[in-house]
Structures are given as structure tokens and as C-alpha cells.
Amino acid sequence: MSNLTFDEGQNRVNVRAVAIIRREGHVLVVREDDDDFVCLPGGRIQRGESSLDAIHREMNEELNAKIEGPQLKYIIENFFWRYGKKFHEFAFYYEIEPPAHVAFVTQGVCQFGEDDGKALSFEWVPYTANHLCRVNLHPLAMRTRLLTLPDGFEHHTVVDPEY
Questions:
Q1: How are beta strands 85-96 and 11-23 bridged, if at all?
Q2: How far is CA 5 from the centre of its chain?
Q3: pLDDT at 48
Q4: Whether the Cβ atoms of residue 143 and residue 160 lie closer than 8 Å to each other
């Protein structure tokens, strides 16, 4: 299957499913290759796949985890620049329980992985706004939204300052 990513010149539309995995005041983040930023685990939704199916698939691929009962917390339309492209991203953020086999280590990398030929390193970081700024969490909109998750789900449109 192909990913729901569409390029037109320097413009890119991207559709993702993302996991919010919190434990004891920390959130699991992932760094891809040697990027200067981290993000929440997840990935692109494939053509013909629901966001719910995608979050199950992505957690299996990235963390070798079977998850149960993911809860949709945010749908965020995000406009930003990255990799020389102007992104319009639709992201579905699901809260999930921490997979039991992912070690809870609060100093350094807790797990390594690989996805589409890219090296992944996972780390638990405190989810305070100050710390999430220090680890350069993207998208920027999630730096404060992780502090208190909504009971249901919320939709937001976010335009990064550089856009």
C-alpha cells in the first residue's frame, strides 16, 4: 500500500497516526536517524487504512507492541516547514497504555528500532513544557497539549511561526 502523502512542488500533504504514551510523568518520544528534534511515535496512514488501524500497525512496526483500546485525543491540522517542504499535515493522536516490554528508563535511550530504513531511538522524557522545549519536541503544538489530555477528543488547527 502507499502512504497518504502527496507532493506538489515544495508542498506536501501528509496524514499520520500518532501515539501518546505516558508513564509516571514522562512521555515516550522517538528520534529518527540523527534529526535535531524528537516526535511522538507513529507514522503515515496508508491508502485505504483507518487512523485506528494505522496506530495499531505503527505500534507493531515501531515498538513490536500489540495495543488495546487506543483513545483518540486530538486531531491536529498542522502547517509547518521541514526538509525544504511546506507541510499541511493531518494527525490523529491516540493515547495508549505503555507497552510492558518497553523499559521505563528515564536517562537516555530505552529502545532502538528501525522503520523504512531509518534508525529509531526511543526515550522517556518528562512532559513538562520546559523539558519538551529542551528536547525540541515537534510538532510544537504538542509541547503544551501533553500536559493535560482532554476527556474526549479535540480538533485544532496550528500554524507554526515559520510557515
A1: parallel
A2: 16
A3: 96
A4: no
**pTM of this structure:** 0.94
- At 34 the pLDDT is 78
Helix (H, G, I), strand (E, B) or coil at 161: coil
In angstroms, the CA 108 to CA 29 distance is 11
Phi, psi of 102 (to 5 degrees): -85, 110
Task: Please give the DSSP secondary-structure letter assigned to residue 16.
Answer: E
From CA 124, how far away is CA 114, in angstroms rounded? 18
Q: Which residue has the cell 526511543?
A: 122
**61 contacts: CB under 8 Å, gap ≥ 6:** 43, 115
Beta strand segments in the chain, E: 5-8, 11-23, 26-32, 42-44, 71-82, 85-96, 109-115, 118-126, 154-159
